[in-house]
Amino acid sequence: MKKVAYMVxxxxxxxxxxxxxxxxxxxKKATSSTPAVVLAAExxxxxxxxxxxxxxxxxxxxxxxxxxxxxxxxxAKALKKEIEASKSDLVTWNDPxxxxxxxxxxxxxxxxxxxxxxxxxxxxxxxxxIGEFNKMLTQLYAKGYVLVNSERLVKKNDKGELVxxxxxxxxxxxxxxxxxxxxNYYEYMINSGFASKLVATKxxxxxxxxxxxxxxxxxxxxxxPIVDEFIKTHPDFSYRGDKGTLAVTGYNGVLGYRTxxxxxxxxxxxxxxxxxxxxxxxxxKADGWNFASHSWGHLNMKTSSVADVKxxxxxxxxxxxxxxxxxxxxxxxxxxxxxDWQGYQDNNEKFAYLRQKGFEIFENVDASHTxxxxxxxxxxxxxxxxxxxxxxxxxxxxxxxxxxxxxNTSEVIDSTNRNK
Length: 420
Known about the structure:
Elements: H1 3-25, H2 36-43, H3 48-57, H4 61-67, H5 74-87, E1 90-92, E2 100-104, H6 111-115, H7 120-126, H8 130-142, E3 145-147, E4 154-156, E5 162-164, E6 168-170, E7 174-181, E8 195-201, E9 204-210, E10 216-219, H9 223-233, E11 244-248, H10 261-264, H11 268-286, E12 289-293, H12 306-319, H13 321-324, E13 329-331, H14 349-356, E14 361-365, E15 373-375, E16 380-386, H15 389-396, H16 409-412, H17 415-418
Parallel strand pairs: 2-7, 2-16, 3-7, 7-11, 11-12, 13-14, 14-16
Antiparallel strand pairs: 1-6, 4-5, 8-9, 9-10, 15-16
Helix pairs in contact: 3-4, 3-5, 8-9, 12-14
């Protein structure tokens, strides 16, 4: 990465720090092991031919052919022919530097409440509305982007070294990594026009939302269920079922459930919240989502001491990992990387400790390039582009056009609500 790219990342991190200080100070019948959404999926299993068609649409050609090996029906023969034709027209994306990564924060359900709240300017700067996000998805799909989870892109060889494992897609398709930060539904966001938690239902993963009148609804009120619904009607927007990465902290609990023992006590309520959160996690993983650490306390790992990084990482491991499971992905809070543009050195104590804890994929923030990645035998480092009010404003005024390959900002931005 060029040095200027790194500096842009640090500058953005600085802006995010100011906002986050406010965050921190604001601070069968389904069973616990079988979420309703998982049971619902199991009860609606597709026929072998229908599953083969879905696998084909999502670029899993070997699995698709295997499902219909012994099917000699007219439809199966036609699908086999189509699959073989597609296999001959693939492009392998084997350059770790060419995978673009877009990330979002919680989506705004009610712009009026969000933008007129005490933290209204922060929401304008760092969030997008549901309406804006829906338009972005439509344009991303039209441009041929396909969602790929970053953990799929690395594997270990026989020597235990990390190697890059790029995906193959038809000509005209481009891999895209998607992530969402702070999927915790923090206390400071209550009554500000955002969803309040993720829930597993018989109709899939949804959000709970409490409107301005205090009425509670369950529906598609944030990124996860919106992407899920989009892929139902556009299955080729997903590579082999991949959706995205959810980056979570721990100080207000996980996914809207107040699970932190250190903050809320080791109580019966905390245990119930933990059980519910685990149900949702199981459903999310079954649905193509994965998890990343975003630190426990939204810690700036660049400026913090080694001791503080260790303390925070251990707390995440103790309070969050038992809920979301182990992950090899670390998404840096504030985008503040622990290394510079030259990469991680052997004497970097923070890197050594984080690697010891199992982290192999490190993701910062850098909006100076449409994509950037660094692959070594020890780690894969990837840059993410923040999609938010700041980035859209920069695009419109001509100071940064990094969003142009993904969507037309002037067509997706909700200027009416943002300019009130």
